[in-house]
Amino acid sequence: MSINRRHFIKQSATVAAGISFMPKGISSLFQQPAMEISLAQWSLHKTLFAKKLDNLDFPAKAKNDFGISVVEYVNQFFKDKARDTTYLNELRKRCNDNGVTNHLIMIDGEGYLGDTNAKQRMKAVENHYKWVDAAKYLGCVTIRVNAHGEGTAEEVKKAAAEGLSTLGEYGKKLGINIIVENHGGYSSNGQWIADLMKTINQKNIGTLPDFGNFCVERDKDNNCLKEYDRYLGTLQMLPYAKGVSAKTYNFDEAGNCKETDYKKMLQVLKGAAFSGYIGIEYEGDEIGEDEGIRKTKELLVRTAAEVGYTLK
Q: What is the mean pLDDT of the chain?
């Protein structure tokens, strides 16, 4: 070994040791962004609605069938159980038995947090309190909500800022994040959501960019007439993201998603240095749900390797 090489190795070891003792915020600058795959329950919505799978069995299926140890629930599949501690204890037990971590609950059907009617908006906020409590009880750190409302873009943004801020204050007491997904209407406009986040400016309120939910205008038959650029929209939401939703519909013969260029999308995430959970959310109709989940996971693993993105 040359003297120069010895000097290099000694210097490298010193730098590495120095980084390990740096404050977290500084040491993170030297770390590569990394993601961990989670499974969104909506990927199995047909199976669940058909009663071929029970909500209580979802954690075990995620782990045993797909090798995924982090799950994201949808409240529709246990909508009357938010305050049922016996039920929640059983769900938590099954997670523990299978080594599964609860990440978030996606909330629908509890009213519009962007309702321009103050009374209705407050009712919606209060309807979400029980799900914040349930999330805490289950060991989740986040609930996903919707920022819908009727009115102009500015009117709904103002109302949503008030609704989300109020719910956020409740969530903060329990250590629960409140995140907004691009989920139709104004919320599918990346700039609108980014502006909403800037207006709120609250640490436990953030976003959940969904790769496939950027339709901003639909016809009476619910067909998409106008779509926001999904790569730009995701980029605009990423500074506030506390997770991302890897939406897939259908696949080509090479196993690539037909609707989204995953290599381009993961490059967007990597460029923004996103670290956190990337939730598989298969919603196609050409293959079965189990196969769709497996193909999405394979796509994520392969594409992450191609772009040099670390998957835990």
A: 91
